[in-house]
Amino acid sequence: MTTVALPTEEAASIPDANELRAWLRLTHAKGLKPLALRLLLGAFGGPLDVLSESFASLAETADARAAVAVLAPPSDIEGVPFDHYIEAVLAWASEPGNHILTFADTAYPQALLTMPDPPPLLYAKGRLDLLQTRAIAIVGSRHASPQGLEDARRFARAMSDAGLVVASGLALGIDAAAHRGALEGDTGTVAVIGTGADLVYPAAHHTLAHEIARDGAILSEWPLGTPARSANFPQRNRLIAGLSGGVLIVEAAMRSGSLITARLANEMGRDVFALPGSIHAPLSQGCHRLIKQGAKLVEAPEDVLEEFGVSSASIARAAAKRAKPRPVSASWASARIADSAIGDNAGRVLDALGHAPATLEILAARTYLDGAALQAALLQLELAGHVAALAGGRYTAVERS
């Protein structure tokens, strides 16, 4: 995990120090639930007004536990004394493109307000307009197959070209592919992260995070300096679901955080979509389970766009645009090769093939091998029993026990 200042061209929104202090005190008051805070704010006005109320009036409006939480002295935040943390947040918010958003801000994502417990305060970097644009979440496995990465990128590009924001979690695998595909499109992407907004996790996504902060938006409910903790990511998934009108699962194993996102989306009344795959592919099992439970089976971006009510003209324009071919990297297939006679090129081809049949053109784009080298690698794999030729010039990996 690395600390980074992500530049954007948008002017910073610097909150009033006293108002910010009140918001942070209430946001981090132990035992004060977001729903109770919304109730108190609705009754008394802003956070300074809430803090000026008596125990009796607070308890009468919410309950005694909420009153105790409101009137308790502020505690450290992420190990930083409260007053020092306020200074750090003000300094962060003064940097271009950085924003503190609360319930009281018109820039606060309206979609989150339909959640049962939206966070009272958010840290945002980048384009605030994207937080008010209709969004589709695209999530999936961190250990995605080449086909999954390609599908995530292609679907995200199509969604972005059709006017939808693509939300995801900046994780390895499907999330990263979705962000990259959306950045190639016309609308953009929002990364909802499970750390402080001043950190990038995983560190390998340092460059991607810069691109998202410049051309999209990064959103976090966690205090600055919050490191990656396993308990934070289900909470992060809840925000991804809340921000979106629907969630598309591209690849997911049976025990996957993506299934948590799908469940939360369903509980919030959002649509859930899933891409089917090979019955032999472990990363298809989670998607198949969702489809059995009522998720909408998706075969093309148009299936999702029609459910979102996107006009046929917009769908046609999005379908007319093609993503540039990109190399993909995965090693699930080559790890299955026990024959030491298989060469490097053959291993690259088997990695690129994944679980879905592919043509020579697709394999060439994924591996960057020329025609002769690709044909030689495929012949080697066929002779070794790892690949079979299908009708129509396609090739498929052969599952071997």
TrEMBL record:
One of its GO terms (biological process) is DNA-mediated transformation. Residues 344-393 form the DprA winged helix domain. InterPro entries: DprA, DprA_WH, DrpA_SLOG, WH-like_DNA-bd_sf. Gene3D superfamilies: 3.40.50.450, Winged helix-like DNA-binding domain superfamily/Winged helix DNA-binding domain. Pfam families: DNA_processg_A, WHD_DprA. Residues 100-308 form the Smf/DprA SLOG domain. SUPFAM superfamilies: MCP/YpsA-like. NCBIfam families: dprA. Belongs to the DprA/Smf family. This is DNA protecting protein DprA. It comes from Caballeronia catudaia.
